[in-house]
Amino acid sequence: IASGADVLCIIRDRTPKSEMFRTSLLDKVQVIWGDVRDQDLMERALGEYEIVTLFHLAAQTTVGTANRNPVSTLDTNIRGTWTVLEAARRSPLVKQIVTASSDKAYGDQPCLPYTESMPMQGMHPYDVSKSCADLLCRSYAQTYALPVCVTRCGNFYGGGDLNWNRIVPGTIRSVIRNERPIIRSDGKYLRDYLYVEDGAAAYLWLAEQMESKPEIVGEAFNFSTGEPISVIDMVTRILSIMGSSLEPDIRNEASNEIREQSLDSTKAASMLDWRPRFTLQDGLAATVSWYEDYFKAHA
Fold this sequence. Notes:
Blueprint: E1 8-11, H1 19-22, E2 30-33, H2 39-48, E3 53-56, H3 63-68, H4 70-89, E4 96-100, H5 125-144, E5 148-153, E6 155-157, H6 167-176, E7 182-183, E8 190-191, E9 193-195, H7 196-212, E10 220-223, E11 229-230, H8 231-241, E12 249-250, H9 266-272, H10 280-297
Parallel strand pairs: 1-2, 3-4, 4-5, 5-10, 6-9, 7-12
Antiparallel strand pairs: 8-11
Helix pairs in contact: 2-4, 4-5, 6-8, 6-10
C-alpha cells in the first residue's frame, strides 16, 4: 500500500483482532472472501482483478496444529499451493509469483546451516507440507516456465502476531501479565528468527528482482540474519529487554519437531544483493514496544 500498489487480498476467515481489522487496513485493499483451494475463485480473482504480481502466503502455519490435525494442514498447504500455481498458469497477466516455503521444508539435515542445494525431506506433517509445496513451485517453474520464486525463511517474529503459542508473543504477554513465560520444549531447540519487516521487504525485493533478472525465475532463496539462537536464549533476551526477573517455565513437552535449524543466506546476498536491515536485538526491541502499546490499548 505504501508503495502505491493496488492490493487484492484473498481472505478465508474473519479475525476481528487481527491487524487487517484493527488498523483499518481492510478499508485500503480489495478483498475476496474465500479459500485458496478453490480453483474457480483463484482464476476469477487473478483474471478479473488483472493481477500482475502474486504473493502466495496462505497456509496453516503452526507445527502443533499440524501434528494434531495433519489432514487440514496438508490439504491447505499442498492443494492450496497447486491450486494457486494452476490458476496463475492460466492467467497470462501474472508476471511474478513469490511463494513462501520455510526452513522446515529441508527437514532434518545432517549439516548446518541449510543451503538451497539441499534436498526437500520433511518428515513430520508441517514439514512435509512445506517440502511438497516447495517442490510443486519448482516443478511448475521447470515444466511450464511459470515465473515463480520460492522463499525459505526461519521463524518470523514481530508486531501483529496474536498466536500466543509462539515463543516471542507468548513470552512478551506473560511478562506483561507478570507470569512466568512457558517454554514447551527443553529450551535447547535451535532456530533462525527473522523480523517480520525484513521478511516483507525480502518478498517485495524478490518480486522486483524477478522483473529485472529473469534468470532467477524458478530459484529458491534462504532469507536469514545468520544468527541462530536457542529457545531459552530467545526468552532470556526478551526478559532482559523488558527488565524482567521472571524465570521461564520449561515443560519439555515438544514432539515431532526438528532439533536444530539454521539458514545460509549467501545466495540471496550474491544474486539479489539482499541483507537484513534489523539485528535480532533491534527487531526484538521493536517487537516488545509494539506489544506493550497493544496491551495498553486493550487494558
